[in-house]
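User: Please fill in residues for this 391-position structure.
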């Protein structure tokens, strides 16, 4: 994804902007002032990162998943993916009018369309597309009906398996420093109360004889890429990624398709095609997505760059230091208008981390489908020459 020709793109036409249709049918030729974006203003440009995905898939006897070491038929198979992701953002929408009903007045939303593409890169040198998601983030102002006294955000998304989601949520107070990233558990549980957890042999990394892709994790354990710690808590990858970074501040977006009580954050939901709901609908699902929760952390990272000796007019690209092997890092573009001696400069950049859990229902159980990643800007960040000291 290093060149623009291989990128996923999403863009609005240059002359498109939302405008109100006035009663006299006179349309303004200039766009209205944009509505606030809040923290979504950080969603600009293209971001990339290498992450991790886990999903328990149905495994049926009609079209069973072949494994290197064949096993008796079962109802599920655990797929593990080391991933490469691109998250491309378009320009914002501006001011989208939403009409209120008395006593609620009209409000204006603003949104950022995006395109998410994820490849499996578990096998070195190979990749396979596993996720495609066009969507949109929107910023919603406070309202009186419903009585929501703070701004909120919502994510609208569709995936080609036949599911759409709308997840609304809160903007947590800004934190000085790194985020607190709690563990996440992939263990399935009974869909019916009391929702007892059921751990499967495929969750034991050292067991090479289970219904799992990859089935034998010996080489991944040795390389430290898929370990027992990662299976026990995929969010550990996120904590490792920031373990050696200096994060100045963090903005946290907490969203869900079924926000927990108390109200009024009651917007959102999931929809599935008939195949996913099964027959009769939803009582014996093939793989019904019932819930999606996600936390996005927008982090401001401070990085110290080692600048070599430069002559006037010289241009270089510098890279941030990775916390763990295989991590994508931010790049910095620097041009010096004068000669400089070797020195260090301090810069900042925006980093996005997320953890997402989708609950899938089949075979009488609810199966957590967890995805995590750390994303950095894909394009080099231009460093102002004013940070350099002349030699």
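Assistant: Residues filled in for all 391 positions:
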């Amino acid at each position: 994804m290093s060149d623009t020709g291989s990128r996923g793109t999403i863009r609005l036409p240059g002359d498109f902007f939302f405008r109100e249709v006035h009663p006299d049918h006179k349309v303004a030729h200039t766009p209205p002032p944009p509505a606030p974006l809040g923290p979504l203003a950080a969603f600009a440009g293209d971001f990339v990162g290498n992450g991790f995905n886990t999903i328990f898939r149905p495994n049926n006897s009609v079209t069973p998943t072949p494994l290197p070491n064949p096993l008796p038929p079962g109802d599920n198979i655990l797929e593990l993916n080391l991933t490469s992701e691109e998250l491309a953002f378009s320009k914002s929408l501006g001011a989208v009018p939403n009409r209120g009903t008395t006593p609620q007045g009209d409000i204006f939303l603003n949104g950022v369309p995006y395109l998410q593409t994820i490849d499996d890169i578990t096998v070195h040198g190979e990749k396979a597309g596993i996720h495609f998601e066009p969507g949109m983030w929107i910023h919603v102002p406070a309202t009186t009906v419903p009585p929501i006294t703070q701004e909120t955000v919502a994510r609208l998304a569709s995936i080609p398996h036949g599911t759409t989601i709308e997840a609304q949520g809160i903007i947590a107070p800004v934190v000085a420093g790194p985020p607190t990233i709690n563990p996440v558990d992939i263990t399935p549980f009974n869909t019916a109360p009391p929702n007892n957890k059921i751990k499967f042999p495929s969750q034991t990394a050292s067991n090479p004889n289970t219904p799992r892709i990859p089935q034998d994790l010996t080489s991944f354990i040795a390389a430290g890429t898929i370990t027992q710690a990662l299976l026990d808590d995929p969010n550990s990858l996120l904590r490792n990624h920031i373990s050696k970074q200096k994060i100045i501040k963090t903005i946290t977006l907490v969203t869900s398709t079924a926000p927990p009580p108390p109200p009024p954050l009651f917007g959102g939901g999931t929809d599935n095609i008939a195949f996913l709901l099964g027959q009769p609908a939803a009582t014996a699902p093939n793989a019904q997505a019932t819930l999606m929760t996600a936390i996005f952390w927008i982090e401001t990272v401070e990085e110290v760059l080692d600048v070599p000796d430069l002559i006037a007019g010289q241009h270089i690209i510098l890279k941030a230091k990775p916390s763990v092997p295989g991590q994508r890092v931010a790049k910095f573009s620097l041009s010096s208008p004068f000669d400089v001696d070797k020195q260090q400069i301090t810069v900042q950049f925006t980093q996005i981390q997320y953890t997402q859990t989708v609950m899938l229902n089949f075979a009488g159980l609810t199966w957590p489908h967890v995805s995590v990643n750390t994303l950095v800007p894909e394009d080099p960040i231009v460093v102002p020459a004013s940070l350099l000291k002349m030699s």
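For context: The chain has four helices and 18 strands.
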